[in-house]
C-alpha cells in the first residue's frame, strides 16, 4: 500500500520557494497554519485564508513572529459560502494581492468534529459536504485560470486536495451525497473525504485531457492532533488535560506541524506528478510517502457521478477551455 519516497523530505529544508505565491484555506489553525509556516520559511509568499478576521489576524501575527521576513497576507474566505468564495477568488484574480500570480492552492479547510445533527448552509447544502468538498470544488474552479496563467517552463501550478486515511475504512460510496435520508456525523465526515479524493483524481484527468498546465494532487496528514503540537499563541493553545489525553495517543498520532509535511510536499515537490496521493509513511504518522487512494474514491464511475453531482449542486462547470487558452509558458 505504501511505496518508499524518492528522497528524504525535511520540512525545514524545502526547495527554495522564493517568487512563488500559494493560497491556503483554513490557514488560521491546525495543519493549514503549519503548512503556511513551512512554505513561508522556504521563501514563498502565502495568502492565509480563513473565515474569521480575528483568528486570521492572530495567525498572521504568529507567523510573522516565528518566521523572520515572512511574506504573508490574509484573505477572508468562508468555504461553506458560495458568495464568500466568489468574492475572495475575484480579489485574487483581480490582482488585489501583492504578487499577481498563483503557483498553488492548498484546499485544506475542513470540519473534523462534525455536527451530531444534520445542518445546512444558507443555500441549503449539507454543511460538512459544503465545507470539506463542494466549497473547494467551487474555489478551484474560480482560481483555475489564475493558476494556469502562472504556469512557466520550470513550474506547473498545483491544487492539493485534503483527503483522509478514514476513506479506507469501508466502502462509504456517497450515493446520498447530502445525507438527506439518514445523517450520521461520522458518515458525513468520511463521505465528504471520499468526495474530496474523487474530485482530486478526476480533476487531474480532466486537466490533462483539456491540456491545462495545472496539476491536481491529493494528500492526507495521517492522524495529527493539537495536543501533540507545539504551542503557538493564538493558533494552538491546548489545555493541560488535552495534552495528557493526546499524549496517550502518541504511538499512533503526530503533531499537526509534522502532519503538514505531507501536504506541503504534495504542493511543492517537483518530483510529484498530478493525480498522485501522498501521506505519512505509517498511515497515521511518519514522513511523507506516496500511497494509493481508497478503491471507492478512485473508482471511475464513482468519480464521474461525484463530479457531475458537484457541478449540479454548485451550478458551475470548470473553465477548462479558457484555462488552456490563457495558460502561461
Ligand atoms: N488532523 C487530522 O488528523 C486530519 C486527518 C485527515 C484529514 N484532515 C483534514 O485536514 C484539514 C485540516 O484539519 P486540521 O486538523 O488542521 O483541523 P483544525 O485544526 O480543526 O483546522 C481546521 C481549519 O479549517 C477552518 N475552517 C473550518 N470551516 C471553515 C469554513 N467554513 N471556511 C473557512 N475555513 C474553515 C478552521 O477555521 P476556524 O478556526 O474558523 O474554525 C481551521 O482553520 C481538514 O480538511 C481535515 O479534514 C485532518
UniProtKB/TrEMBL annotation:
Pathway: Steroid biosynthesis; zymosterol biosynthesis; zymosterol from lanosterol: step 5/6. Residues 278-302 are annotated as: Disordered. InterPro entries: Ergosterol_Biosynth_ERG27 (IPR051593), NAD(P)-bd_dom_sf (IPR036291), SDR_fam (IPR002347). One of its GO terms (molecular function) is 3-beta-hydroxysteroid 3-dehydrogenase (NADP+) activity. Its EC number is 1.1.1.270. This is 3beta-hydroxysteroid 3-dehydrogenase. It comes from Microbacterium betulae.
Amino acid at each position: 500500500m505504501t511505496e518508499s519516497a524518492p528522497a528524504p523530505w525535511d520540512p525545514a529544508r524545502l526547495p527554495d520557494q522564493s517568487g512563488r505565491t500559494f493560497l491556503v484555506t483554513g490557514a488560521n489553525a491546525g495543519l493549514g497554519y503549519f503548512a503556511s509556516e513551512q512554505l513561508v520559511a522556504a521563501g514563498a509568499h502565502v495568502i492565509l485564508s480563513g473565515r474569521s478576521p480575528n483568528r486570521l489576524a492572530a495567525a498572521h501575527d504568529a507567523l510573522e513572529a516565528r518566521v523572520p521576513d515572512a511574506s504573508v497576507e490574509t484573505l477572508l474566505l468562508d468555504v461553506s459560502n458560495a458568495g464568500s468564495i466568489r468574492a475572495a477568488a475575484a480579489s485574487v484574480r483581480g490582482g488585489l494581492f501583492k504578487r499577481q500570480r498563483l503557483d498553488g492552492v492548498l484546499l485544506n479547510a475542513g470540519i473534523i468534529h462534525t455536527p451530531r445533527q444534520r445542518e445546512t448552509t444558507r443555500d441549503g447544502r449539507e454543511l460538512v459536504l459544503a465545507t470539506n468538498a463542494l466549497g473547494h470544488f467551487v474555489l478551484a474552479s474560480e482560481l483555475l485560470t489564475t493558476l494556469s496563467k502562472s504556469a512557466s517552463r520550470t513550474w506547473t501550478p498545483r491544487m492539493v486536495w485534503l483527503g483522509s486515511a478514514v476513506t479506507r475504512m469501508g466502502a462509504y460510496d456517497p450515493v446520498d451525497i447530502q445525507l438527506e435520508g439518514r445523517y450520521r456525523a461520522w458518515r458525513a465526515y468520511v463521505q465528504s473525504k471520499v468526495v474530496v479524493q474523487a474530485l482530486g483524481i478526476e480533476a487531474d484527468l480532466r486537466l490533462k485531457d483539456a491540456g491545462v498546465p495545472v496539476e491536481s494532487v491529493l494528500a492526507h496528514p495521517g492522524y495529527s492532533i493539537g495536543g501533540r503540537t507545539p504551542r503557538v499563541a493564538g493558533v494552538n493553545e491546548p489545555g493541560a488535560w488535552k495534552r495528557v489525553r493526546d499524549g496517550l495517543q502518541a504511538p499512533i498520532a503526530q503533531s499537526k506541524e509534522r502532519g503538514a509535511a505531507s501536504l506541503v510536499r504534495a504542493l511543492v515537490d517537483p518530483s510529484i506528478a498530478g493525480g498522485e496521493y501522498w501521506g505519512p509513511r505509517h498511515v497515521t504518522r511518519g514522513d511523507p510517502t506516496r500511497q494509493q487512494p481508497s478503491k471507492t474514491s478512485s473508482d471511475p464511475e464513482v468519480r464521474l457521478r461525484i463530479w457531475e453531482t458537484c457541478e449540479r449542486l454548485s451550478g458551475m462547470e470548470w473553465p477548462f477551455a479558457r484555462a488552456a487558452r490563457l495558460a502561461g509558458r
